[in-house]
Amino acid sequence: MGGLRDFIETLHKSNELVKISTYVNPELEIAEITDRVSKSPNGGKALLFENNGTEFPVLINMYGSQSRICSALRVDSLDKLAERIYKIWEIVTAPKSSFSDKLRMVPLAAEASKWLPKYSTRKGECQQVIWKNEDADLSRLPILKCWPNDGGRFITLPMVTTKDPESGSRNIGMYRMQIMGKHSAALHWHPHKTGAKHYNAWKKHGGKMPVAVCLGGDPAYAYSATAPLPDGIDEWILSGFIRNKPVELVKCLTNELHVPSDCDFVIEGFVDISAPKVLEGPFGDHTGFYSLEDYFPQMEVTCITHRHNAVYPATLVGIPPQEDALLGLATERIFLAPIRLLMQPEISDMKMPPEGGMHNLALVTISNTFPQQGFKVASGLWGAGQMMFNKALIILPDGIDLCDNELIAKYISRTKRKNILLSQGPLDILDHAAQELGSGGKIALDLTSVDIYSDIEPIGLPTEFTLTKGIERIDTTFASKWSTLVINADRTLTNIEQLKNSIEQIWLSNGISGIKFTLVVDSDIDQITAKDLVWWALANFDADRDLTFTINDVLIIDARRKTNGLNGTLRRWPNPTTTDRNTIDRIDQIWDKLNLGELIKSPSEYYQKFTLGTGSDSE
Questions:
Q1: What gap in Å lies between CA 423 and CA 379, rounded to an integer?
Q2: Distance between the two ends of the chain, CA-based, in angstroms?
Q3: What is the distance between the alpha carbons of residues 320 and 390, in angstroms, rounded to a whole number?
Q4: Selection from 420, 429, 423 nearest residue 554 by Cα
Q5: Active site residue: 234, 264, 285, 349, which one?
Q6: How far apart are CA 164 and CA 145, in angstroms?
Q7: Which of 37, 131, 247, 492 suits a disulfide with 135, CB 3.0-4.6 Å?
Q8: Active-site residue flag, 285
Q9: How far apart are CA 379 and CA 376, in angstroms?
Q10: Is 400:412 a contact under the CB 8 Å cutoff?
Q11: CB-based contacts of 302: which residues, under 8 Å, 6+ apart?
């Protein structure tokens, strides 16, 4: 497989791609169509927008199904790739007491040599066309604006190459880029990311920080840029491992960095570390909410190169499910082996449901041999790499199918207070519910000792509820399966103690029994699916600030919007990502020309119920 053109041909032959020749605007319209398709069963199909007002087609949703992510990573199933890694880790980490044990390393070393990048002195395919000076104009590319309140157009699938000024070690990270002008873009890297570490090192070192942004090429490249590799591990080595052949690198034309020869585009430039940071955002992010404005470094573009017949790759993030869920699934399967072998050997399986937005929820099964081992695993995972950003962890016994929601519900419905661990630590920078930016509460349920066949207290509910102050509605839909009541509360209950008092009165007035959880949402949110309820709740609570127990040990989860100081919150509260009426109507009008079959209704029409006002902030 070569670059994107070869991958497009592969997808076309397997009926995994739709080519759209009708004009579609990169501003909002491509994203609206993609949102409809990516939320279709099995992730819909990859989309190639051939007519967008530029000379380059846009490929999007290329990783958006299990079959496509497997094709991109050259495997029949993601577990096959995980098995390769597991066997390698077993050989590398096993004791080597004999000469024969050491000989086993020889073929591994020979195989590993195929993974190391190779350097070429010739120009690459990515340098067949060169734009310099004024011609190096970012507006010539079909860069998307995805959501109405985004701060502008964003490059959403960039592979950003930086290096440490002292050690020379290279990093390739995927950091969104907001276009600030024809020749400049903001680099959105979080403080824990290697790109930010390199930036800080250049601040001490002095001089201009070289940056190269790659787009396209082998589809394994973009996945590698998203992978949670330890510092110092070159992402091009992971690409070589996936491809089982080395990545050929060529030198940039205006700085000393090296990039894959077969990329579709390379944007070269630098960051002036003496210049002030620029205000970037808002941006409709993978959490399903807008990440709000903040200050980030600005890249100045010196050169743009591309191959003949280049294809511009993009992705859309927003309310799940989206294409990034499949990238997350690949990481979940591929990196399970190192987690088991190096940190938590009792872990047998792991799943991060799309509703959790990558970091908010993880399900884990373990081989349980001693009391509270699940809490030990939780503490270990919260200290391991990017798992430190996890907010909610559910730990189950070995052998549970983590896709079996019915069985998992039986375990959750038997939760007792002793099964619940509350903690604090780092959280995703994009977690708007965190008490402070990047820091807040965590919760783990250790359900490994739960006996799902034991008798439990029967659920007792009235035929009609007597409501108390601030409680507007009680939904019993999830009572029998999840032992959960969903309560709509208004904003007269301004803190968690007032909420607790009202809920305790509900229990006393109505003779409720057998319920373990009460999930509190805003009074305007009604008729919500189970998956959307999980997404909304996980995104809108902090485990330290918004959880409390009633006198009978029912766990209250306050997942209301924390606007106007609710529960003492001082942070701004963003809106979910939905598009505007004009864009919805425009796509409805041209749908029959898009070659996408029967009209798919806009998801934004349903999700508008979650928004307040029209801006990126909830009002």
A1: 9
A2: 49
A3: 17
A4: 420
A5: 285
A6: 32
A7: 131
A8: yes
A9: 5
A10: no
A11: 132, 136, 254, 255, 268, 269, 270
Lowest mean pLDDT among 96-110, 233-247, 310-324, 480-494: 96-110
Q: What's the pLDDT at 57?
A: 98
Is pLDDT at 109 greater than 70 in this prediction?
Answer: no
Number of other residues whose CB lies within 10 A of the CB of residue 9: 13
DSSP 143-209: -BB-STTSSS-EE-S-EEEEE-TTT--EEEE---EEEEETTEEEE---TTSHHHHHHHHHHHH-SEE
Phi, psi of 474 (to 5 degrees): -130, 125
Cα torsion 314, 319, 322, 326: sign? positive
pLDDT digits (tens, 9 = 90+) for 584-602: 999 999 999 999 999 999 9
**Residue that the structure tokens 């990329």 belong to:** 263
3-state secondary structure 517-563: EEEEEECCCCCCCHHHHHHHHHHCCCCCCCEEECCCCCEEEECCCCH
Which residue in this structure is represented by tokens 């000076």?
A: 133
Cβ atoms < 10 Å from Cβ of 607: 20
- How does 360-398 read in b/e, with b if 16+ C-beta sit within 10 Å? bbbbbbbebeeeebbbbbbbebbebeebbbbbbbbbbbe
DSSP code, position 237: H
Q: Please choose, from the candidates 609, 444, 608, 603, the residue with its C-alpha nearest in 3D space to the C-alpha of residue 31.
A: 603
Round to whole Å and give the CA distance between 450 and 444. Answer: 14
Which residue carries 């734009």 as its tokens? 131
Q: Is the pTM here over 0.90, yes or no?
A: yes
- Which residue intervals of 373-478 are DSSP H helices? 373-381, 405-412
Nearest CA-CA partner of 470 in 447, 498, 444: 498
